[in-house]
Specification:
Length: 235
C-alpha cells in the first residue's frame, strides 16, 4: 500500500532523515518509535508533502507517486495526517469539525456513511456532537482529530504522537480504536514515544534514531527485544 524508499530530508545543513525506507501494508498498523528529535514528525510531514524530500526519495501509495504531488493532491490520493497538537477548530462543535473533514468531492459523497463509521469507532463523539471541540479533554480532542481525518476517506492514516499529554488510561482507550479502524482496510502509520502501548496494538514497528532506521520487526518481537527494552522502555 504505502512504500517509502530512500527518503531523505534536510533542514539547511541538518540531515533530519537519511535514506529512510519502510512500508505499510493494507489494513496494517505500523509504529515508528524514536526519541525526541529522531525525525518522526519530519517523516510524516514529508509523506504529507509539507516538507520537501531530497532528490532520489520515493514515496508510493499503490502505484501513485506521492513525491511528485502537492499536499492537497496527497490528501486526495488517500493520505490523511493527524498532526501533533491536533489543530482542531476549538470554537466549532464536534459535528462541525467532522463535516470539515469531508471537504473533497469524493469524501462529500460518502460523508453520511463515513460519519456512521466514525461514530461506530468513537461512540463518545456521537453523544458529544454539539459540544465545542475546545472544551473537550485532550483524549476526546484526539478522537475528534482522528475522526476528522477519517472523514477524508483515507487509505492511510498518519498519526503524530497521538498519546502525547494523555494519561495511560486515556491512551489505552484511544489506541483500542486503532485496530478497529485498520480492520476496515485503512492502513495506519503512527509515530510514538510511547513504546509499550503503541507496540501492543501494532503489527510491526520501525526504530528511528537520528534520522536513520536502525531496526524493524514484528511488534511482538520488538517488545521482547533487549535493545528495545534498554533504549525505549528503560528496563
Ligand atoms: P519530537 O518527538 O521531539 O517531536 P521528532 O522525532 O518528531 O521529535 P522532528 O521534529 O522530525 O523529530 O525533528 C528532527 C530533527 O530536525 C530535529 O533535530 C529538529 O530540531 C530538526 N528540525 C525539525 N524541524 C526543523 C525546521 N523547520 N528547521 C530546522 N530544523 C528542524
Amino acid at each position: 500500500m504505502l512504500e517509502v524508499s530512500d527518503l531523505s530530508v534536510r533542514y539547511g545543513r541538518h540531515v533530519a532523515l537519511e535514506k529512510v525506507s519502510l512500508e505499510v501494508r493494507t489494513g496494517e498498523i505500523v509504529v515508528v518509535l524514536g526519541a525526541n528529535g529522531a525525525g518522526k514528525t519530519t517523516l510524516l510531514k514529508a509523506l504529507a508533502g509539507l516538507v520537501p524530500a531530497e532528490e532520489g526519495s520515493r514515496m508510493m501509495l499503490g502505484d501513485k507517486a506521492l513525491h511528485t504531488l502537492p499536499p492537497h493532491k496527497i490528501v486526495e490520493a488517500g493520505l490523511a495526517l493527524v498532526p501533533e497538537g491536533r489543530h482542531l477548530f476549538g470554537t466549532l462543535t464536534v459535528a462541525e469539525n467532522l463535516s470539515l473533514g469531508a471537504f473533497l468531492p469524493k469524501a462529500r459523497e460518502k460523508a453520511e456513511a463515513n460519519l456512521d463509521f466514525v461514530y461506530s469507532i468513537f461512540p463518545k463523539l456521537k453523544e458529544r456532537q454539539p459540544q465545542l471541540a475546545g472544551t473537550m479533554s485532550g483524549g476526546e480532542q484526539q478522537m475528534v482529530a482522528i475522526a476528522r481525518a477519517l472523514m477524508t476517506c483515507p487509505k492511510v492514516l498518519l498519526l503524530d504522537e497521538p498519546s502525547l499529554g494523555l494519561s495511560p488510561l486515556m491512551t489505552m482507550e484511544l489506541f483500542k480504536a486503532l485496530p478497529r479502524i485498520a480492520a476496515s482496510g485503512i492502513s495506519i502509520l503512527v509515530v510514538e514515544q510511547n513504546t509499550k502501548q503503541s507496540l501492543a496494538i501494532a503489527d510491526r514497528g520501525y526504530l528511528l534514531e537520528k534520522g536513520n532506521v536502525i531496526g524493524h520487526g514484528a511488534a511482538e518481537e520488538l517488545l521482547k527485544s533487549e535493545d528495545v527494552q534498554k533504549a525505549y522502555l528503560g528496563l
